[in-house]
Structure formats: structure tokens, C-alpha cells
Amino acid sequence: MTGLQDAAGICRLIAASPFHLAALRSVNALALPDWWIGAGFVRSLVWDHLHGIGKPTPLTDIDVIWFDRQHATADTDDALTAKLRAAHPGVPWSIKNQARMHERNGDRPYRSSLDAMRHWPETATAVAVTLADTATLDLAALFGTGDLLAMLVRPTPHFRQHRMDVYHARQNRKNWRMFWPGLRDVPD
């Protein structure tokens, strides 16, 4: 696949993956407001492609985010997760309504799913995709696609200001270079 230079190229890469399209269609069928699938779902696919890895790196979870203040309970998220797991056994779904996640993270209340993504750890991970309609992909890359495509790992401004201890612990735990040796850290 050529043309992986921008958001449009990333969308073409996602569209070429039957697994990714099936996941997007399954979440779309739930008719959730302001929904996206992000983090490793997009990041890992891009980094696999850039490293020439043919067999996808296994995902530890598929981060589905959505935003609805009226249904901001863990029970609602658990029920949605169970529905997706029943339809797709063995897929590691993780559904979180971002209208409640600020409490866990110690942040001010988020205004939307994209606002919540601004508080994610890495710029290359603060990226997500949704179906704008039944066939059109929409990519959100809140800090641009440059770091993701250049395989640069750096904290988001929020983490740089407030949570570098968590950021460093996460980098050690993830050990991404084991899968993608071409990654480079941007110094703090």
C-alpha cells in the first residue's frame, strides 16, 4: 500500500483491512452518539504497515469511545461490551462513555469524545476513526498524524503538564519497541 502520508492514507489503510471495517460496522450498528474506535486500533495498524509487518500485531483491546451524559454509567458500558462480545467472541472490546471517564482520570468533565482524546497519553495514540455514514471513514488526529507516521512517541500536552510519571510507567509497561523497533522517543 502506498500513500501513507496523511489522514487520507491512513483511512485507505483502514478501509483495506476487513477486520477493521467489520469492527467499525459492528460499533456503528449500536447507534451510539459521538462514537470512535481509537488508540491501538489505528496506531498499531499504521505502525505494522510502516514496519512491513504482514500479520497484524495482536491488540490487547479495541478502545471504543462514545459520549452521552444521559447514559454515563459503567453498567451501560458493560452491557454494550457484552453485546459486541456476543456478536464477535474473542475480540477484546473495551467500551467507555467519555462522559464519565474524567472522574477516573482526575480531569475536568470532558465535553465530547474528541475533548476526552486530548487527555490521552501519546500524540501518536490520540487518533481514532469512525464511520461518518455507512461507508465513509472519518479520522480524528487531535495532534495531527505527523508523530504517528514518523513513528515518534511523545506525550500529549496534557500528560506533559500533569502526568509524566504515569506516561513513563505506561511506556515501560507497553514495551512497544518489541513489536516496532523503528519507534523513536521524543525527549521530555
Protein described:
The chain has one domain: Beta Polymerase, domain 2, CATH 3.30.460. A hairpin with a 5-residue loop joins β4 and β5. The chain has a five-stranded mixed beta sheet. A two-stranded parallel ribbon has the order 6-7. Helix content is 43%, strand content 14%. It is built from nine helices and seven strands, in the order ααβαβαβααββαβααβ. The mean pLDDT is 93. The chain is an alpha/beta fold and 188 residues long. It is globular and about 40 Å long.
- How helical, in percent, are the residues? 40-55%
> Structural class, from helix and strand content?
alpha/beta
Mean pLDDT: 93
Globally, the shape reads: globular
SSE layout and pairings?
Layout lengths: L6 H9 L2 H11 L7 E3 L1 H11 L11 E5 L7 H14 L5 E5 H8 L7 H5 L9 E5 L5 E5 L4 H5 L1 E2 L3 H6 L1 H11 L9 E2 L3
Parallel strand pairs: 2-3, 6-7
Antiparallel strand pairs: 1-2, 1-4, 4-5
